[in-house]
Structure formats: C-alpha cells, structure tokens
Amino acid sequence: MTMAHDTDRTPMTAADLEAALRKIGAERYHSLHPFHKKLHGGQCTLDQVRAWALNRYCYQSIIPQKDAALMARCEDRALRREWLHRITDHDGLDGGEGGIDRWLMLTDGLGFDRAYVMSKRGALPATRFATEAYLHFVRDRSLLEAVASSLTELFAPQLHEERISGMLGHYDFINERVIAYFRRRLDQAPRDATFALDYVLKNARTVDEQQAALGALTFKTEVLWAQLDALWLAYVDPAMPAPGAWRPGEGMAVTREAAE
Amino acid sequence: MTMAHDTDRTPMTAADLEAALRKIGAERYHSLHPFHKKLHGGQCTLDQVRAWALNRYCYQSIIPQKDAALMARCEDRALRREWLHRITDHDGLDGGEGGIDRWLMLTDGLGFDRAYVMSKRGALPATRFATEAYLHFVRDRSLLEAVASSLTELFAPQLHEERISGMLGHYDFINERVIAYFRRRLDQAPRDATFALDYVLKNARTVDEQQAALGALTFKTEVLWAQLDALWLAYVDPAMPAPGAWRPGEGMAVTREAAE
Known about the structure:
The structure is a homodimer of 260-residue chains.
Chain A: H1 14-28, H2 34-40, H3 46-72, H4 77-91, H5 99-109, H6 114-119, H7 125-140, H8 143-148, H9 156-170, H10 180-203, H11 207-236, H12 256-259
Helix pairs in contact in A: 1-11, 3-4, 3-5, 3-7, 3-11, 5-10, 7-11, 9-10
C-alpha cells in the first residue's frame, strides 16, 4: 500500500510493467525474511519448524477458497476454465491427492495430530488475519487485482528449490515424503505464474490499472511477510506467542510407538 | 478461536455467562501485553509512542465502519437507534468533533503530518490485517457475535485510567490536549459496554449462542493483541519493521518552527 503514484499519467509498456512487478518481488518477497534464512540454513529447532508448518497450513487451506472467490466473480468462461486447475491442484480431483493433503503429510511428519492442524486452533491470530485478508482482497477488489495478487508465484520456484535442498540437507526429520508439496509446486507454480503474468500485462493498460496491479502484488508480499513476522515474534525472538496460540508439546499425535 | 466446547450442552445462567466473558478479559485483554506496560510505565521512546499512535489510527478509523456494518444487517430499529451514537461518537455529529478527530490531535501532538497518518501508508501490514479482520467479522458473523465482539469495552476504562496517568506523568511530549481521546472514552465506553453486555446476556441463550459470544470476544482480544505484537516486533524487539512500514523520521509535519 505504499506504491508511489505515477505523476505523468503515461502508462508503462508491458516490458516496463513486468520489470516493475519483478522489482516488487526482488525487494519484498518473503524469501528475504530472516525466518526463511534460518529455516533453510538448518538453524531452526524442530519446534520452530513445527510452528512454521502449523501456521502455514492456514495459508494453504485458504488458497482454494480464494481461487473460488475469484472464479465466482469472473464472467469470462475461458479464464474460469484456466483458473479451475488451481483449485484441483490444492483440493485434489475425484478424491485424488491435492496440495493440502501434501501439506498434511508435512505436518504428519513433524508429529502433529491432523485434527489439531486442520482446526487452526493453535495458529497465531496474526496468521489467520493475514491469510483471511488475502481471501477478502480477492473477493472484494477488481478481477485484475485478484489475478495480480497471485503473481508471487513468479518468485516461488527459486524459494522452493532452496527449501528442498536446505531442509533435506539440514534436518534429519525431513525426508522426500514430507517435502512432496514443494517438489510438486516446482512444476505447478511456473505454469500458473506465466498465465497470470500474461493476463496482467494484457489487461493492465491505464496508469490506474497498472498501479492497482502493482499494489495488489505489494499487498500479497505483505500477506506472506506478515506470517513470518508473526512466527518470528512468537517462536524465535522474543518468543512470546499470543494467548491461546500453540506452545511446544501441544497438538501432537499419539504415535503407535509412544502408545506402546 | 480456542474456546473449549461445552460438552454437557446445558446453557449457562446469565451470571455464569457474564463471569465467563469477564474471565476472557482477565486472561486475554491487551492491558496484559508488555507493550502497554512499557507505554504506560514511561519506558517507550518518542518514536515508539509515535509508532503506536500511527498504527492505532487504523483501528480508530475502522470503528465507525464496523458499527455501520452492524447496523446494515440489523432489522431491529431499537438496536439501530441505540447503536447509532457509536458512529457519531467517532465520526462526530453535524461537523462536530469526534473520536477520530481526537486521535488526530494525538498524532498531531507527536509531530505527524495528518495526511500521512490518514493515508495509513506507514502502518504495519499486520495492523491493517487485524483491524480489517474486525470489520469483516462484524459484517459476516451473526448479529449476536457482532455485538459480543464489542465487549472489550468492559475492560477499557481501567486501561484508559492507567494510560492517562502513566503517559501524563512520564512523557513531557504528552499533555491534556493530546490525550483528550482517552478522557472522553472514560464516559463513553461504560455506557456502551453496559448496553452490549445486557444484549448478549439476553440473546445468548443456547449453548451454541453462548459459545459463539465467548468466541467473538476472544476473537476481539486477538485483534487487539495482534496489533501490539506487531508493534513489538517492528519497533521494540527485534525492531524489524516490515518492508515499506514507517521508519522513524518519516511522515512528520513540517512545523512552523522547523520551517523558520
């Protein structure tokens, strides 16, 4: 929400608009957040990784809702047909596995009880507020802004590459099964991002539309950044989780080994 | 969002429900947050007080919107007539001064440019997400939950008393003029809280309604707490404001003295 407004009112070329969108990623994407450096560098405790996965579930779970909110307001059948696979990617098709199932394989692997994770009871309030802000944004703003807010996917593959190699290399509790979500996103995200970028470059033609698209992408980087800020305050430094939020030891599955 | 559900399905008496509501305040109201202890105890720097006032403007500014959202869904004319004065308290009536004007007298006194404050450009994204969550909650949930979410006012007068004496006593940049907002709320909040409490005690009769009312008040304490968490992370410890958020020195008014 800090975009400077163009004063000369001349729209950018598509190439300049793309460069301006990529600049937002270079300056504000959450790959720059200290929590990610810590997570991928092997400096997180098991409980910090748990807190991250537990909270990030809120974000994963809201993605198909925000995509449905976008489709609900979209009169263009071609756009709806293209957008639909985002929902099936996350929810699964015909009972098949989707991204949310793969995220739950990660929280399983970290020892959580699934019902606890899915209830979101232990999530930080700030996580819920940020992720719900994304849903409301897509529901309430223009279709162009809704599409533009998905463009953080342009920057995701490099982050996921770092995450996969960093987490597999550094943590003995991470294996291929629990990071299946990220492997799969390496293929899915670029296809989605290319489509959405083309849409924005074609449809953001006036200065106001271009500023709205840049503002939407900025907003989305704030949604992602705020989630890591909340984790940092609650579980890293000064480690003061909000009243009622997850404390280490809560929400764990009773495993067969532990029960024996 | 962490309310345990009653298992025996017997509704509480009104007295027990009131006690349960007050217990949420005793355990979760933001008077308990370390930022308030620091603020009222005179341990904040001028820039930390500025960050607090700048961010809290987002909350103040959204109050009349959330009250209008409540009235917009309310078929009961008597409730609308009672609720209306909350809007005029904040927005002012017939061009008269309201709570938002008094908040801007506080930010004026701290040296801010009004247009900068009112643009919310320098506010932390987490502050915007939390305050907008309150607006969306009141718009989307039941009328009972919307009313119950206002019940943090039951706990406000004591906090405002502490704030007035603490800030006047400890900071040479605070005087009666800049804390006019809090003096006025000492009279306004108890009247509102008494009405809303009576409404909730009369209308929350089933176990589900009572749990919804308790959940709504818990949610509201989370909205308030999350704002102080965000301030703490950004401006106290470890002092890492989100990209684009206010940095000391930004958004100040050019005063006559400074210009001379």
